[in-house]
Write a structure and sequence with these properties.
Strand content: 25-35%
Mean pLDDT: 86
Distance between the termini: 33 Å
Oligomer: single chain
Strand order of the largest sheet: 3-2-1-6-5-4
Helix content: 25-40%
Number of strands: 6
Number of helices: 3
Length: 117
């Protein structure tokens, strides 16, 4: 139980969260280009159906609630893991928001429903 509590404390800032994700193998940095998730330092790009959101973390500014951001942990169909960050709310990047919404919709439609016994 102590380990979980330490992790919660450790993950309170975006930089701490990014460091933890990197240690967990999320080493690529992503950006959105022309409706695709692209690796920053290569020419590899992925359409929404080729990626999944593994996790996300929201952060609020301490002095200004509009100073909010969201960090996504992403994985591609070929096993590449990485992160992409965005502002949250009115300052969000429209391209990132649109792409993430598409990924979420695809994930919702592909998750098998539980069969009731």
């Amino acid at each position: 139980m102590e380990n979980i509590e330490n992790e919660k404390i450790e993950m309170k800032t975006m930089s701490a969260c990014m460091n933890k994700l990197q240690a967990d193998g999320f080493v690529s940095n992503f950006m959105i280009k022309v409706d695709k998730l692209c690796v920053v330092d290569t020419d590899k790009c992925y359409r929404p159906e080729a990626v999944k959101i593994v996790n996300f973390y929201r952060f609020e500014g301490e002095t200004d609630p509009s100073d909010s951001s969201i960090l996504y942990a992403m994985e591609t169909v070929d096993g590449l893991k990485g992160i992409i960050a965005d502002a949250y709310g009115v300052y969000a990047d429209r391209e990132i928001s649109k792409f993430m919404k598409e990924v979420e919709e695809i994930m919702k439609s592909t998750i098998p429903s539980k069969v009731q016994a």
